[in-house]
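User: Can you write out an input/output pair for a complex, sequences first and structure second?

Assistant: Here is one pair. Inputs:
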Amino acid sequence: MDAIFLQILNGLDKGGAYALIALGLTLVFGTLGVVNFAHGALFMMGSFCAVTLNRIFNISFERVSETEVDFLGNPLKEKIPYLQQWFGADVSNFLLEWSVPMSILLAIVVMGIVGVIMERGLIKHFYKRPHADQILVTFGLAIILQELVRHYFGANPIPQSAPDAFAGAANVGAWIGLGDNVIYPWWRLIYFVFSALVIFGVFAFLQFTTFGMVVRAGMQDRETVGLLGINIQRRFTIVFGLAAAVAGVAGAMYTPVLPPDYHMGMDFLVLSFVVVVVGGMGSLSGAVLAGFLLGILQSFASMNEVKSILPGIDQIIIYLVAVIILLTLPRGLMGRKGVMED
Amino acid sequence: MSKKLIVNRRSVLKYGGAASVALATPYFFTRGALAQSNDYRNAPTGDTVTFGFNVPQTGAYADEGADELRAYELAVEHINAGGGGMLDTFSSKALTGGVNGKKVAFVTGDTQTKSDAARASAKRMIENDGAVVITGGSSSGVAIAVQGLCQEAGVIFMAGLTHSNDTTGKDKRANGFRHFFNTEMSGAALAPILEKNYGRDRKVYHLTADYTWGWSQEGSMQKYTEPFGWETVAAVRTPVGAGDFSQYITPILNSGADTLVLNHYGKDMVNSLTQAVQFGLRDKQVNGKDFVIVVPLYSRLMVQGAGDAAKGIFGSTNWHWSLQDDASKAFVKSFGEKYGFPPSQAAHTCYCQAILYADACQRAETFRPSAVGAALEGFEFDGLGNGPVLYRAEDHQCFKDVLVVKGKENPSSPFDLLEVVEVTPRAQVEYPVDLLGGELGPYNDGAA
C-alpha cells in the first residue's frame, strides 16, 4: 500500500510537469494551428531564468585574501557578492535561498517576451505552410536556443536549491495514517500544487474572461471572429506569449527537482508531444488529463514487481499506451473532430 | 647471316623466368626497408604527424570533453616543446621536441557520447585527416565501439575516460590501450573503506545505469562488498538519461535497504544523487543504522553538478588535482596557468595518454601500431601523477594507485569539492590477467 501510494505521488508530480508543458503546446496548436517543437526549449529557458536570477544575486567583486591561497598557491581572490556588501549577509543569503520561487516573476516576463518575439519574428511566417515545415523550423529553433544556452552556461547541470524551509522530505504517511516510510520531498509536493494552480489559472483565464472567451471563439471559428471586427491574430500572439510563460514558470520551478542543463527541454519534448496526442490535439483538458494519466502509468511501470513480470516496461509504457489509445480512440482521449484531419 | 628468333615453349619459360627475376629484384632488396618506413596506415610523410582527439563536444558530457581537449592541446604543446608540465617529471626522457623528428599536429572529432557518432568522427579523422592515433572519450560504450573501429582500421586507440571492465576485458583489442582505472579496481579500493566506515552486514540497494559500464560497476561492488556481509536487496537497472529518478527511488524506502549504491555517472549521477537526498534517504535510519549512499565513480565535474548532495559521500577516482606529488603539482600548475582552473581526472588521463603514446613512438622510432604497441606493453613508468605505473602487456591496462575520495563538507572553492581519503596502493587493486576474459588478438598495422 505504501509503495502504491508513493508511486501515485510520483505520477502526480511527474504528470504535473508533463501537463504544464503539454498545456502550452496544445494551447499554441489550438489557437495558431502550429506544431511547436521549440516548446521544450522554452521549458529549458525557463529553468535558466532561475539560474540567471541566482547569478544576478551572486554578482561579486573580487578581494584579494591576505591569508588564503588559490590552487596555484597565489593569493586567493575572494568573491564578495555586491548584495552582501550593500545590504549585509542576511539579506544576501535570503535572496539567494529564495531565488527559485522569485525566478517565477522573471520567467513570466522574460518568457512572455520571448514567446511574442518568436511568434512575430518567425512562427507567423509559417502559418500557411504545411505542418512538416512548422515542425522543421521550430525544431531548428529549439536547437539554436539550446546551443546558445550551452554556449553561455556550459553543458554541466547547474544545481539550484529549494529554500531551506522546503529542502527536506515531508512525512506524508503520518498525515494519512500510513507508515513512516511514506515520505516525499516537500518541493515535489509544492511543485504538484503549483502546477495544479497554474493549470487552474490558465483554464480560468480562458473560461471566465472576455479575452479568453474571444480566444476560445477564435479557436472554434477564426474567420467569423475576424468578421466581427476583432483582431484575433493579436490575441493569438498574446496566447503564444502566455504558453511560453507557462512553459517558463514550469521550468523555473522544476530546477530543484532536476538540475537544469541545456538539453533538458528535448528530454521533455517527446513525452509532452505524446501527452498532447493522447489527450487529443488541441484539447486543453485532454492534455492535462493525459499528462497526469501517463505520469502515473510511467511510475507504476517502474515498480520492481511490475518490471519482474514485464522487463523494460518502464521504458515503453507511455508509447504502448499511446498506441492502444490511438487505435481505439483515433482523436485521443478528448480530441475534437476535424483537428488535423484534413 | 641473320639469326632467327625461335619462339617455343622452352624459350618462353626461359625468358619469362629471367624477366620475372629481374622485375622482382628491386622489391626483394627493398622489402625490408619498406616495412620499416611506410607500409602501415597513415604513415606520416611530411614534417608533421597527426593525432586525432575524439571527445564529446556536444551532449551531456560536453564539459568533460572540453576539459579533455584542453589537456590534449597542452600535451601537444609540451611534446612539441620537449618539456613542460608532467613531461618534466615523466620518468622516460625519450621526448626531446616533437616525435621521431616530426611536430605533432592534431584534428578533433565530436563523439556526442554516441557510439555511432564517435565511430563516424574517428573514421573521418583516420581516412580524411590521416590520424595515426585516435584518443579521448567519456563513455565505455563509446570507447569499446571506437576501439573496435581502430583495430579494423589499423591505428592505435588510446582510450580516454572509460571505466568499464570490458574495455580491457572481454572487449579488449591489440590496438587499444587504457590508462584510466576500471570498476574492478574501484571495487577493490573502495570496499575496505566502506567496511571501515559503515561496518559489516548491510542491506544494499543498487541503482544501475543500464549499459556496459553500469553492469560492470554493479558487479564489482557486489563482488567486493558481499564477502563482509553487504547483501544485495535489489539491483534495479535504470535507463540512461532517465532525468527524473523518483519512480526508482521511492521503492527503496520500503525495501528494507540501509545502503544505496548509485552505479551512475555524469548527468544520471547528478540527478539520481540529488533526488535520493531530496527523498530524505540520508536522514533515514534503517535496521538500526544510518542510511548511507555510495557513488563508486566520482568526477569533480559531477560533484559540481550535484552540489551539496555529494557532501560526505564516498567514491573512487583516477586522479585528483589536490595530490601533492611533484608530477601532479607540475600538471596542475601548467594547466591552471593556461586555463585558470585545475584539471579534471578526464583531463589528466587524456594528457597522460597523449604523452605515453608520443613517448612510445619515440622509443619505437616509428608510428607503426605494432611497434608502438610493443613499446607500450610492459612499460613501467613514473612521474605522471599516479606513482609507479605498469602498462600490462597482456591486457593493455594500466595498473597504478587508486584514490578513494569523499565529497568535501566545507569546500573552500568551486573546485575544492573532493577530499582524498586514501591512496589505495597498486598491489591492492591488481588482478589476474584472465579474470576479465577476452583476447587481444593480433595487431593490425592497416593498409599502406
